[in-house]
């Protein structure tokens, strides 16, 4: 494997080896496979180093699906929408059980002796500082989700819980969590925050952590390529380098690209709504396309610079802006309610954790299927992208440090964020202001900020955060896709990074023009069901792999 020359100022991550061998005693998996052995390389007219057949099959499949969605919107839209409803409606119990398994496994590994195993070998050192590492974890994981749902979800759950159960023909038609809290403002607030934290706390981060840990372990400690197929080596053996592995990697590329394209379209809608709210700018389709082009251009620049110079720096800037906005809301909002609410909401979450985690004997079908199962399927469909990126930047961390940073710390920050933004919106609503609740989903953040001082400044910062969070998701996602499509090579030629970043933007624009984003989101969520089986298999592989590493260290 070649190493980029440190003397080249345009080289991504100059001087950093693409995939260093383990440092210290580890259990290397013996295989004759060499990273990139199936690749097709060339230098003219542009440099390329692509895996055969993952690159071609992925690209063609994406083009075919996008074209079909545009040509047959009235057929594929309802089809994928119905498929999503079948998946979340009939397998909600499976998603809930799987989410519980992922959390319990992560907590077990943190507390067990297996947590001392170091990713990359016992003598490996981290590639990134703690601040840079954590910034990238959070920005790629779900920073944009907190911007989009930080106000709307707690408020939505509060309104539904306050209304309580609504029965029609003996069945509940409301969206309240559990049994709601009819007429009880304090009880509805506690239940709403508990439900929100349940969706944005330990479960989604455990999903990401399982994928990331499995990839990092088999790449950095076992010597296999940093692609999703490597996790299945204990199951398929050498066959994983053939079509079983090709299928896994193609599905990972498609899930990542479609998930990012969907988010680009949704992000363009929220940013466009924010600019209209602040400056009166148009929210027409053309404005949204321009935003996608801008986001893609900035993401492409970041991708060209690489992880160290591009993604890391952008993520750190974004985290500083997010922290500044969070502190502002805490200081000028109902600060006492926010500060005390943080601990109160954690208590509410702990109190309702078992009922919310219970997959059986509940009657809150709309909430359990339309919210929880939908979220679990969405997080799982995103897990190849986020998990691989987390693995990419986490070499040198112990399993215990890795899981603590990926699972515990982001969950606590999510609780504080939802408490500040969602709690402020609920307080405003309880005080008689209906503007937030009556606003469209993409405008609720800006309506909440309009009731605080310095509205123009904070709203503009909010718009910038929305855009930059999408940029960091786009650039990190493009790096992940490029790694998979290059057969596990982290330092594939720069033109390939540019290709995937631009391809992602073009797919988002095409689906936005053709009205296919909803169908695409439904399709992405539907892939969560088979990927759940993949993750459960990864749990077994992680434990087996860590036990072998622990024995090697004795």
From TrEMBL:
Q: How does it sit in the membrane?
A: Multi-pass membrane protein
The record, for InterPro entries, names: BCCT_transptr
Where do transmembrane segments lie in this chain? Answer: 54-73, 93-116, 128-149, 202-220, 241-266, 278-305, 317-336, 373-391, 403-428, 448-471, 498-522, 528-547
Q: Which Gene Ontology molecular-function terms are recorded?
A: transmembrane transporter activity
Cellular component terms (Gene Ontology): plasma membrane
Keyword flag Nucleotide-binding = no
Q: Which domain of life is it from?
A: Bacteria
Localization (cell): Cell membrane
Q: What is this protein called?
A: Betaine/carnitine transporter, BCCT family
Q: Which UniProt keywords apply?
A: Cell membrane, Membrane, Transmembrane, Transmembrane helix, Transport
Q: Which family does it belong to?
A: Belongs to the BCCT transporter (TC 2.A.15) family.
> A Pfam family this protein belongs to?
BCCT
